[in-house]
Amino acid sequence: MSSKAVKIAVTCVVLAAALGGLLYTTLSDGTEYYMHVDEVMTDPSAWQGKHLQLHGFVNDLRQRPNSLDYRFQVQNNGKVVTASYSGVVPDTFKNGSEVVLKGRLRGGDFQVEPNGVLAKCPSRYNPNAAGPTGAGS
Amino acid sequence: MASLGSLTLLATFVAAAYAVAASVAGARRRSTPLIDSGIGAFYLTAGLLTVTSAIIVRAFVVGDFTIRYVQHYSDSVQPLAYKIASYWGGLDGSILFWVFLLSVFGTVAVAVNRERHRELIPWVVAVIAATEMFFIFIMVVHNNPFDTFLTTPPAEGKGLNPLLQNFYMAIHPPSLYTGFVAMTIPYAFGIAALVTGHLDDSWLRAVRRWTMIGWLFLTFGLTLGMLWAYEELGWGGFWAWDPVENAGLLPWFTATAFLHSVMVQERRGMLRVWNVTLVIVTFFLTIFGTFMTRSGVVQSVHAFGEDHWLAGVFSAFMVVIVVFSFGLVLYRLPLLKSRHELDSWMSREAAFLANNWILLFSAFFVLFATMFPTLAEAVTGHRLTVGPPFFNKWMLPIGLILLLLTGIAPLLAWRKTTLTNLLALFTWPAAATLVTGAAVYTLGIRVWTSGLCFAFCAFVFVTIIQEFVRGAAVRKGASGTDILTAMIGLVGRSRRRYGGYIVHAGIVLMFLGFAGQGYKQDAQLLLKPGQQATVGAFTLRHDALTVTSDDQKQMITGHVTVSRSGRVIAQMEPAKWFFARHEEQPTTEVAIRRAPGEDLYIVLAGYEVETQTATYAVTINPLINWIWLGFGVLAFGTGIALLPERAFAFAIAKVPAGAVTTGLMLLLVLLPATARAAQNGGQADQRSARVKALEGQFMCMCGGCRAAMNNCPMAPGCHGLRDQEPKLEAYVAQGMSDEAIKAAFVKEYGEEILLEPPDHGFNKLAWLFPYLMGGAGAAAIGMVAWRWSRTPQQTVAPSAHPAAAGEDAALKEKLEDELRDLD
After folding, report:
1. Cross-chain Cβ contact A88/B605 below 8 Å
2. Do B609 and A125 touch (CB under 8 A)?
3. ipTM score of the complex?
4. Which residues contact B189 (CB under 8 A, 6 or more apart)?
């Protein structure tokens, strides 16, 4: 009986250790840091190349004519970073809108990954009444 | 009316409290009158909650905007169906809806099992009523859906969120809730068994059936959720590992595990603690899922917003559940001793055990990853998130292993499998796997993970077929009928087993759909009118951009002509709708061209009205429709497994040889016809109806009315119609598709002939139609089976009876004998 208990215990420990180890290693490249622009830009070098979800406000939005390439600035609490993105953007993505961008910081440029633009809506269940019907992007 | 609603809520709370008290007291004193009064109070809660629901639905329908909840989630222009659906559109109402469903289910469960499980019933009533009390308490104290305005009430409602104004949204939450709620019943029976110590296997029967029902609804709810995400959200996929989706998935894992491990207990008397634990954990996870989505602990697209009070109350309730339930398990541990030990790892029970571990690990993993951001923030202070890639990295291999086990387990015998048996049984499935694998490899399809998935699908599929054929061959040998009749008889004889195989077949189809995601293609196109681009095999031409509006919304529609290898195959109209009062959040109206091979999925992502430029996000989704089809098969299989005992078996025993084959042939002839009818809405009497429907889509071009063809005020004599109508009829007579007719009309008259793009409501109904047909068919079969099982007993002369019975017994014995080897 006791040898059986030992066997079970050993199996459980080994399994748990293996799975835990696997979980830990995969977790490190699966995670993204959720940061505000000012938190990142106080020490940009520490965040170079890391997977980020950058929270801030869009400013100076420019689109290359006849393309889906965008360049804009993201700011929060006075800190600013330039960002570039290529692809379809949400309807609510315009100057002044609050966004969360998925991507990496490379040099002074925040490169947003494909489909990495999430525009925050004020609240899903409390939509702001009345607003201009935007002409789209 | 609002105060009446609050009053009935209070009354329900009192009734539920009495039901708990009277049941517990009655059970302890063994007083039948007390127990009966408890059951009466329990039925009363269901009645009162029905009245409460009726009150709030009425408030929505008549637009009683003095009630906050009604004002917040509906408005007067909303269609009636969405007014009713608004009932569960917000937090307060969804809690009310939850309790209402629970009371209905509880009543049915108690009424059905009242005689059979006499000693358990009072405790079942007490547990369910206590759960009801918790939710009613939340409503009474904190989230009363009948709250009114203290100030002057507004004259108009804010309207239901446009994203929720959707066919699937109207039925997806009820289905998921039904699944969640149904899991309370097995828990109540489990607790009752633990309290009373009646831990023989009889309580498992009731529990198993209810878990199966809950499991079916849960699966249905999850599938509908995927359909909703796919059709409405417009990002081209169907599952994003969002916390709310995960909340529905967690109890699904444990319930699936239970449905398998319960067989081990029935067969071998093992895993008794484990099964009770699974029942408890499943219930716990349904409450946890509700907690996760209602309290705002995790960030999600569709969480209801943060609420600390709710989080606290829910946490307290969950702690109570855990302490109470597992306390009881510990207390009853001596009664839950296993009767047997595992004989061999090469046995079916071992395979089930592995399946259980993996399912439980999946639940644990999904829970961990869902809660990870919250946990990480608490520990490190940084908000770390994990995205779908992390989930996929783990869940893809796990899914593949589970799929493989689905094929392996039925091939293993109980207790111990001999090597010769193993070889004999594995030959065909293994061969199928290798052939598929080789085909996948030579075709250059990526092996990890989709290619592997295809190979495993082949393995499981061949296993299932082999099981059917093997069983049918035995039965055919014993009864001398043809193979098909034997097969139906087989399903009738052990419905759970073969129903289970059919469920597995459905799962295989769903996995095919998942594997198709490995070959998904997408593109983003910025097109001026007349420009075209190619995605995959399709060429898309952007024709025009139109702006139209109706009394609820403004619609921007892109018109795209799709062709494949030079032939025009479809006109597609992706759109954006701006609902009044919700202009900030336009809804995306995806245009989907469905096909068994691959779906073409177009979203109008951006536009510029002045230049008529449009940005389209295009996705090609291979095999995705097999997911929905797979669910249909799965539901059918579950239905068979759930069929009541006598109805089916007797009917099958009395069917004359060959009848099934004839019937099946007939069905095969009829099926394609109904399928076509489902798509086109009926063939024979359809001509004129189709013309009428088309007339609704084109404008009368007489120049004066600007109305639809079937709505022109100058009707019969209008010169515009005189011109257009014969053309339309001629096109229809030529058998042209709607798209082609539309294209022809546009070519002749220009874009303005098109009225607004059709609201896709009916199309969606048509899509559901096959499922409804399937359901109706199953119901009809059940009815016939039931009738069959009764008539012979009245008509057969008594003298003929003993002989028949003797023959039956002999047959049965032989079958049992041969099937025992198979099991």
Report:
1. yes
2. no
3. 0.77
4. B113, B117, B120, B124, B203, B206, B207, B210
